Structure prediction request, 423 residues.
Amino acid sequence: MSTHRSLNERLHKRRPRASSLHRIETDKGHHLTGPFMVQTPLGSNTPESCDSPVSSDSFNMIKPKGGLVADLLNARWVVNPVSSFKLLMIPVLLYINWELLAPYVAPGLPNPVAPLLFISYPIPDSSPDDPRYGKGYLDLAFLAFHIVFYSFVRQFVTTAICRPIARYFGIKKQGKLDRFGEQGYALLYFAVMGAWGYRIMGQLPTWWYRTEYFWIDYPHWQMKPELKRYFLMQASYWCQQFIVLALRLEKPRKDYNELIAHHFVTLWLVGWGYLTNLTLIGHAIYMSMDIPDAFLAFSKLLNYMGFHKLKVGSLAVFLVVWSYFRHWLNLVILWSIWFEFDLIDESNRVWAPKTGAWLTWWMKYQIVFPISLLQLLNIFWYYLILRIAIRSLRDVKVDDVRSDDEDGGDDDNDDDTEDAKED
Prediction:
């Protein structure tokens, strides 16, 4: 009994010695470091448990509690695929109804539901072969519909597609099933949007970060339809992600504050970029974020599936991609803001929203500030990534013998127990 008490006293005394950085690196709930920790061998007989950063309730919403109206009132439609699908179908059916009946009832009257499904504000005098679109309040309708769209797609991909794949690879624990689904959805989204952004950049004068064209011919308010659709789809995705976090509709991660800061800065850039007609630089920033995130999600999935040696190779590729896109290209963009801002014609370096010109002299600092905040967050994550890479090269094992309850226990206790063993 005295031995047990002595051990407990030593554990409590040692607890404050653990650094906050060490706790981040050994935290299975951290969005970056957790998925790279060595996983329990596939196929092991481990009891299902859930210490997932995502509440399991969000994945068990096939039967809505209280119906659609209740889910609308408490915002559960964001994580309930049934409710989000019903919400999606309402405007789709109304749109089809109007298209079928309007020619007989109100010929020539535009479909009032169209702004929810399609981009608005075509510029009448633009060429039919190369049309251009402006922006306006109806863009908010498109944004709202696609927030619901992403809510449905996210839950459908994580449960109907990723979960069976995870089980096929022998993943059994509820927590890992949830996290595997998150990363599967992230891989799908960022791979698609990264490829789409690459395709669009090929149509723009800013092709491969020719930064002078961020400013030449500003304001860039006449957008190619594909660029406008891309920008609004990106905005919808980040709004949906922010709603889930801000309303705590899922169990918050331990790095909740980091993610909130990242999403807030991203939405700041999205909103201001679109409002002030900085769509070309906004598109370039999106692409520099999406492509490395696809590689990150792929590396995490390999680790969950137990391909630890393959994960190391993927992590090395990811490290190169992340360094180039998230740091080098972001620094190139910051350099352009600081040194090429004056390429804007002097007549448009004014605060004149009616003409689409918003970039008076002080806006230069307003653009630099959020991108610099994003770079600081990236540097912090980059430091963690480098430590993960070093640890992976040093400790890579195909067959790892970890505790079977790695998703269900208290991480702090595990760390302290190891400290006690060293004593």
Remarks:
- Residues 11-18, 40-64, 397-423 have pLDDT under 50 and may be disordered.
- Residues 154 and 185 are 6 Å apart (CA to CA).
